[in-house]
Design goal:
This protein is mainly beta. The protein has one domain: Outer membrane protein transport protein (OMPP1/FadL/TodX) (Porin), CATH 2.40.160. The protein has three helices and 20 strands. The strands form three sheets. The chain has a 14-stranded antiparallel β-barrel with strand order 1-3-4-5-6-8-9-12-13-14-15-18-19-20. It starts with a helix and ends with a strand.
């Protein structure tokens, strides 16, 4: 009895400890570059171990809130999750020719931006006494982020760029039949931007909304289908930059792309202990302000598996193949802002968002009832090194890794 009482006291303290850690670490969410700057579900507690695979059968409720909201009906209990991820990137840039219009001289250096923490917090519960079974969810998480910094290199003329997009997302799902569910989310974004223009770029913030619709269908006892659509999310940062050599402040528009996700999962093998899942995600970067001048439309394929090793332990693996989003045919402006120096200058600025790595591998473990009613998810992943030449004068190289966890309290 004494041991159980001690465990119960520890369980009561853990939410406060986890929440405190999250509150201290979460203000900075830059540099965690995954698909362009969009995280999708690759940093979520359970989906993170499956390379973000989560459209048809998400294994954590925050992934449903941030993707296919219809999948919330798959969760039978009231759940509260507190988690997060640490992401570290190594980014190198080499500029072989000067860009006089930006005050940039030839140099080669590694970005000085440190690794950061990305939060993932959410809750889900069923609403009783509704005509149709209705489940509501709420998530607070990092939606997108990127960051590079070369302020330590005088030749860069203070080149740096930071972007942070946090999302507050209420969502709801309704079970239309035993097999069919529909859902929707409203993602309320809080964005912070500095750069990417060389010059004076003080940190500024803006707000924006993003709508999401989802569909889930149980094809058979072991197979699920899922699909979702998310609108673009456009942020308008007022007076966010003063371009090099100019004195008037410029408003910068930047956004996340319209996104479509399709998924399938199957749990028929090994007496239901093996879950196989696959997602195809289309990122319509042409709809995203500023980034439409840097990226082209991108397809991502995510593959994940989960093996129930015993009654309490789940093992997860994932692989993602992401198309190179870099647009080779840039113009002379970004987000409608003419860039001094034309195409070579735009290519240099494009290098601050050059996420070209095609291969991502992840692994994770889920432990049920770490304490009574308390589950633990752990995950880790990384991108293999990749390089890209942006024109004839700018070369970039990027590799990164991330680790994370989530604690989930279940009731009911």
């Amino acid at each position: 009895m004494r041991r159980y009482a001690t465990a119960r006291k520890c369980r009561r303290c853990l939410p406060l400890i986890a929440l405190g850690i999250w509150a201290v670490c979460s203000p900075s969410v830059a540099t965690a570059q995954l698909y362009g700057i969009d995280f999708r579900n690759t940093l979520m507690p359970a989906s993170g171990g499956m390379a973000g695979t989560s459209v048809a059968a998400p294994q954590d409720m925050i992934s449903a809130v941030n993707g296919n909201a219809a999948a919330l009906t798959q969760f039978q209990e009231t759940r509260v999750t507190i988690g997060g991820a640490f992401a570290e990137a190594t980014y190198d840039l080499s500029q072989t020719q000067a860009v006089p219009s930006l005050g940039v001289l030839p140099y080669a250096a590694k970005s000085s931006t440190p690794g950061v923490v990305v939060p993932a917090v959410g809750a889900v519960m069923e609403i009783p006494e509704m005509p149709l079974r209705t489940v509501v969810g709420l998530g607070v998480f990092g939606g997108a982020g990127s960051g590079v910094g070369f302020e330590q290199v005088p030749e860069s003329n203070g080149t740096s760029s930071y972007l942070l997009l946090l999302e507050f997302a209420p969502s709801v799902a309704v079970e239309i039949t035993d097999r069919l569910s529909v859902g929707g989310s409203m993602l309320i974004g809080d964005g912070y931007l500095s750069g990417p223009f060389v010059g004076s770029s003080p940190m500024s913030n803006a707000y924006s909304l993003r709508a999401g619709l989802g569909l889930g269908y149980e094809l058979g006892e072991a197979t699920r289908l899922g699909a979702y659509w998310q609108s673009t999310q456009a942020f308008r940062f007022q007076n966010a930059a003063i371009l090099y050599g100019q004195t008037q402040a410029t408003t910068v528009n930047i956004g996340l792309p319209q996104t479509v996700g399709l998924g399938i999962s199957n749990q028929a093998l090994l007496d239901g202990r093996l879950l196989l899942a696959a997602d195809a995600i289309f990122l319509n970067w042409d709809t995203a302000a500023l980034l439409q001048n840097i990226y082209k439309d991108q397809w991502v394929m995510q593959l994940g598996l989960q093996y129930q090793a015993n009654q309490r332990t789940k093992l997860r693996l994932g692989y993602a193949l992401a198309g190179n989003p870099i647009d080779e045919t840039v113009g002379t402006s970004l987000a409608g802002v003419p860039v001094p120096g034309g195409v070579p200058a735009v290519k240099y600025l494009q290098g601050q968002y050059a996420v070209v790595n095609p291969h991502r591998f992840t692994g994770g473990v889920g432990i049920t009832d770490l304490l009574p009613g308390l589950d633990l998810d752990l995950f880790a992943g990384g991108m293999f090194p990749a390089s890209e030449s942006l024109g004839s004068n700018t070369q970039t190289s990027l590799k990164s890794y991330w680790i994370g966890l989530g604690l989930t309290w279940r009731q009911g």
